[in-house]
Write a structure and sequence with these properties.
33% helix
Amino acid sequence: MSPLRGLLLSVATTCLLSVVAFGAEPAKPKVALSNSDCVKCHTAPPADIEAKGGAHKTNVTCQDCHVGHPPAVKKNVIPQCSMCHSDKPHYKLANCQRCHNNPHTPKDIKLANNITDECLSCHSQQIVKLKQVPSKHTKLACSFCHNVHGKIPACTQCHKPHSADMGAADCKRCHQAHMPTAVTYASDTTNKMCASCHKQAFDHLASSDAKHKTVTCVTCHKEKHKMVPTCQSCHGAPHPAGMLAKFTKCGDCHSTAHKLNHWDSAKKAPASAAPAAKSAPKKK
């Protein structure tokens, strides 16, 4: 063997032994991306998250949702909400983006038209009230009144107040929005509030000289609308039994509670008409 050939063989053997001993060239480690890398290309989502990201800003990074980037990853680049949100009935609804249009601003909710079922997955007590006391409100979609999430509309947005001096806040003193016909009121409700609907009764009391004039409507008509008390609930049996047996209704003597002991003068009977003239006998 020539000296040159021996030298080449020795070098080749040394290289081969080096590869066997130390292995092939190590693979380059994967570079971990950070939010600062994403913003280099994707400017709008980070800006949205910074402004209105909520928990998407404070609890997760871009990589927690976007598990990879093309071309290395081709599937699930745009994540499903159910990857993280799955432990409540609301999260089982289909088409999250119907209301949560931008996942980077999840609490900036834009309600679509005629939404009810989606709302009830969180707001369950409202439908109980709507069905318990059916009204025209029962037939409306939630989004008809609540067209912006979290908005509590004023009743006067749809309904005219009972009187010109009533404001939107006064409606809630008697009416609950989800059961509006079940009218209830507090013990400090003034007669003027009642007068907006019951004007005749209010006017009768105002012109009365009886003690009833000083009593508030809610003292007699307690707590529930259209509750009509008996006179005995306050006055007991003020007359002898014989008189009460003969006159069974208090109103027979005292008129109405709002117009106590006040009687309208009897209307004059119309003048009797003159007797009709006898018709002349027919000629034969």
